[in-house]
Each structure stands twice: as C-alpha cells, then as structure tokens.
Amino acid sequence: MNEFAKIFKALSDANRLRILKILERKSLCVCEITNILGLSASTVSAHLSVLKEVGFIHDSKDGKWVNYSISKFSNDIIVNQILAMFPLWMNENDQIREDRIKAELANRIELCNININSTGD
C-alpha cells in the first residue's frame, strides 16, 4: 500500500505534473526546468528527486549538464502503466501548452550561465 501512496503522492503536485509533461517532449536540465516553471532551483530539484525516486524520470550526465527525462521503463508496473497513458492527459491545458512553448525556446547555455569552454580547474 505504501508504494501506491508514494506513486500517487508524486503525481499530486501540479508542478511535478508540469515537469512530466515538458519532459515528454525532450530532456531538460534543472536550470531549463527552473526557467520554464518560474520556481527556484532548490524547489525544482526537490520535485525532480520525488519523481526520480518513484521511477517516473531518470537523469544522465551530458558534459556539465545533468539531463532529466521520462523513464522508458520502470521496475514498477503501475509507474509503467501511468507513463504509457500520461501522453494522453492534460494536453489541452493552457499551462501545459505554455510550458511546452517555453521548453522549445529554452537555451541552456544562456539560462545556465555555464562557460562550456572551461576545464573545471
């Protein structure tokens, strides 16, 4: 029962739903998601942790960025079923549409303010 509660708790926050909807389209880093949602990086990171812990998303390193994307497969059958249906939900919502436009226009080099030529020394 606790696993069900954890899954549905992860889906009970509007910002986490928004994150899942924008990640349907493409992988994004924290600063891109922060910009799209208008939230602080710490808040976005907390939301991402909840979604990752349940298995809705995963992360991967890409140079100086950590990209977040929708999981292709989870060990939990309920998460897999929700992920299979999720693309059909909320597509007509104005906020979701606006978020998707922002995601398409997001420029991580400008948003993240990272010097991609630095060596990290």
Write the layout of secondary structure elements.
Layout: H1 2-10, H2 14-25, H3 30-37, H4 41-54, E1 57-62, E2 65-70, H5 77-85, H6 94-105, H7 108-112
Antiparallel strand pairs: 1-2
Helix pairs in contact: 2-6, 3-4, 3-6
Any overview of this molecule?
- The chain has 7 helices and 2 strands.
- The chain has 121 residues and is mostly helical.
- The model is unreliable at 115-121 (pLDDT under 50).
- Helix 2 (14-25) packs across helix 6 (94-105) and helix 3 packs across helix 4 (41-54).
- 57% of the residues lie in helices and 10% in strands.
- It has one domain (2-106): Arc Repressor Mutant, subunit A, CATH 1.10.10.10.
Gap between N and C termini: 48 Å
Main sheet: strand order? 1-2
Q: Please, how many helices?
A: 7
Return the CATH architecture.
Orthogonal Bundle
Overall spatial form = globular
Rg, nearest Å: 15 Å
Structural class: mainly alpha
Which strand-content bin applies to the residues?
5-15%
Which series of helices and strands comes N to C?
HHHHEEHHH
Helix content: 55-70%
For the biggest sheet, the summary is: 2 strands, antiparallel
